[in-house]
Amino acid sequence: xxxxxxxxxxxxxxxxxxxxxxxxxxxxxxxxxxxxxxxxxxxxxxxxxxxxxxxxxxxxxxxxxxxxxxxxxxxxxxxxxxxxxxxxxxxxxxxxxxxxxxxxxxxxxxxxxxxxxxxxxxxxxxxxxxxxxxxxxxxxxxxxxxxxxxxxxxxxxxxxxxxxxxxxxxxxxxxxxxxxxxxxxxxxxxxxxxxxxxxxxxxxxxxxxxxxxxxxxxxxxxxxxxxxxxxxxxxxxxxxxxxxxxxxxxxxxxxxxxxxxxxxxxxxxxxxxxxxxxxxxxxxxxxxxxxxxxxxxxxxxxxxxxxxxxxxxxxxxxxxxxxxxxxxxxxxxxxxxxxxxxxxxxxxxxxxxxxxxxxxxxxxxxxxxxxxxxxxxxxxxxxxxxxxxxxxxxxxxxxxxxxxxxxxxxxxxxxxxxxxxxxxxxxxxxxx
Length: 432
Hints:
This protein is α/β, with parallel strands linked by helices. The chain has 15 helices and 14 strands. Strand 8 (230-235), helix 10 and strand 9 (257-260) form a beta-alpha-beta unit.
């Protein structure tokens, strides 16, 4: 039934769905459960009634407080009961703005969006309005919009070092290719070359992914100040993972603007763009407006999520669980002689097998863990319900699979002979 529905979806929806990271080809072609019926904590029931524990994307990083969190859902249900959108504005957007500014004392005002790509596009528009310059320096992943993909027009596949190999630019006007240039995180030489461009008005970057390079962030901040360049930090993914707010608040390097999304609504669509008064006032000089940025569910979910995160200190909880998971995985991989490396922030633990058979091993994990009612591959995005007991059970189920991978890597066992379905795609290699 699931495969039939997905085959139908590929006819009526280009690509089969609207989000590349959730396509079944990224995990187990023709075998991934694909469609869900209901959720609870870390469990997902598919449309055929099978229940899986999610040790994979966990809502693509949106559900730090677990699936169907009662506190957040109750607040949203009440908002729906009262009315989600009307001719007048909802008070919740003012409350959430004040809460976000409390977490970011360097900022003075906010704008709202519902997706990370929108939030990034809003920030770029405001940054260009302030600087009166078109060129954007890019470091990291920032969505699907023209301004971002345009850097692959200027230098072929320049976004590949950002873990996005082969992003197509079809449909992106070639005329804007000179207005976006990518540089690699921690690469001072590339950044210095970019600074020499007189048209540079905005730098947008992720604060960190596998590591946070504080000296580099300080160097970028210092030189943006000297050149009058707007510095934007994209915290849509990193926000609320290791701090209550953004990674930059932990290291003491403040941007001119920042964006938060994903985990802010615990599964409901809400993104926040915030910045200094000096820069944000230019939002009024450009037309930035959309009907559903004013609905009530998003900010309501954001307020409820922030409340519960603060009460539980969720960022500390998921970091502790991430450290525990990494220790367990490391011991297991070493025990069976499987070469690996970790990437990602600790609560966003990904592992890569240092082998030409990496994708086959990833596919094999998914294939075998599905039989044990786990959604799993090589990335575990943690929630407050991925506790040590759950992690121990996950590792116990994973171990015999890793043993076989070790035999394939070291004793000549052919992993291809025990793969029952096609190997997963490698296309979107970013963590989430």
